[in-house]
């Protein structure tokens, strides 16, 4: 074995674009560049003392009044990294906020974070599609190699969500309170097929209840792909 073979394949070292501040639209949800005009809706769904629990694992304090919300949203709307998006439903309501951060075009790495979703979005098709849109932009539109997501190790819902979406553990330090997940570009095709199968209207009954879980859809897609590869090798 040569030294080159031992070291493995060369990594694509091209630089990818910085994410554009442009809308991302799906069948159930849209992600729109955050602006001050969205602040009243955001405060309605994320602000006030009754929504303080949504901010428990974030470094930002809850929006306890509209003025505070306006000031923060104005600052966020001007930020390049993190790059914030409003999560907007088909009725035009702003139900949450998400961002790209630690954006590194040179090394083709990017993170999804600052995710704050109102209670009405929890465990819904809309929330799942919002993450799917972020991943599609990073991998398909821009060509990033790795998308990461950090979560407080005590934030059980966020950890469960990351694993459900197909992200894999990469670090869990005993002296730190952050768990890190990631998806790489070689894992993305199988993860993407799982998302597409899960989000398809045939996967939901008349009451909107899922027929198969996202994990089942992803595993089924992986098995189908392996079968196609195997039968292709035999033909």
Number of H- or I-type helical stretches: 7
Distance between the termini: 30 Å
For the record, what is the CATH homologous superfamily label?
Answer: Gcn5-related N-acetyltransferase (GNAT)
CATH class: Alpha Beta
Largest sheet: 8 strands, mixed
- The shape, in one word, is globular
Helix content: 25-40%
CATH topology: Aminopeptidase
Number of domains: 1
Mean pLDDT over all positions: 82
The H/E string reads: HEEHHEEEHEHEEHH
Give an overview in words.
The structure is a single chain. The chain has 235 residues and is α+β, with helices and mostly antiparallel strands. The chain has a single domain, classed as Aminopeptidase. Helices cover 36% and strands 23% of the residues. The protein is built from seven helices and eight strands, in the order αββααβββαβαββαα. It has an eight-stranded mixed β-sheet, sandwiched between helices. Strand 1 and strand 2 form a beta hairpin. The two termini are 30 Å apart.
In short:
The chain is α+β, with helices and mostly antiparallel strands. It has 7 helices and 8 strands; from the N terminus they run H-E-E-H-H-E-E-E-H-E-H-E-E-H-H.
Relevant terms:
235 residues, alpha+beta, Aminopeptidase, 7 helices, 8 strands, globular, disordered C terminus
SSE topology sketch:
Elements: H1 3-7, E1 24-25, E2 29-33, H2 39-46, H3 66-78, E3 83-89, E4 94-104, E5 109-117, H4 125-141, E6 146-152, H5 156-164, E7 168-172, E8 178-184, H6 188-199, H7 214-234
Parallel strand pairs: 5-6
Antiparallel strand pairs: 1-2, 2-3, 3-4, 4-5, 6-8, 7-8
């Amino acid at each position: 074995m040569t030294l080159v073979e031992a070291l493995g394949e060369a990594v694509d070292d091209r630089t990818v674009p910085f994410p554009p501040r442009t809308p991302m639209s799906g069948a159930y949800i849209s992600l729109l560049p955050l602006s001050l005009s969205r602040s009243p809706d955001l405060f309605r769904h994320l602000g006030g003392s009754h929504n303080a629990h949504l901010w428990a694992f974030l470094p930002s304090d809850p929006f306890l009044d509209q003025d505070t919300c306006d000031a923060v949203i104005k600052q966020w709307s001007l930020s390049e990294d993190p790059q914030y998006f409003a999560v907007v439903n088909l009725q035009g309501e702003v139900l949450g906020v998400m961002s790209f951060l630690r954006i590194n075009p040179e090394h083709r790495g990017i993170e999804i974070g600052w995710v704050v979703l109102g209670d009405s979005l929890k465990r819904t098709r809309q929330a799942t599609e919002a993450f799917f849109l972020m991943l599609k932009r990073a991998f398909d539109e821009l060509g990033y190699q790795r998308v990461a997501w950090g979560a407080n190790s005590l934030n059980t819902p966020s950890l469960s969500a990351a694993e459900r979406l197909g992200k894999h553990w990469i670090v869990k330090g005993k002296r730190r309170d952050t768990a890190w997940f990631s998806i790489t570009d070689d894992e993305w095709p199988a993860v993407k097929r799982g998302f597409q199968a899960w989000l398809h209207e045939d996967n939901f009954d008349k009451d909107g209840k899922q027929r198969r879980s996202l994990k089942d859809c992803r595993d089924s897609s992986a098995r189908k792909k392996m079968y196609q590869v195997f039968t292709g090798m035999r033909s």
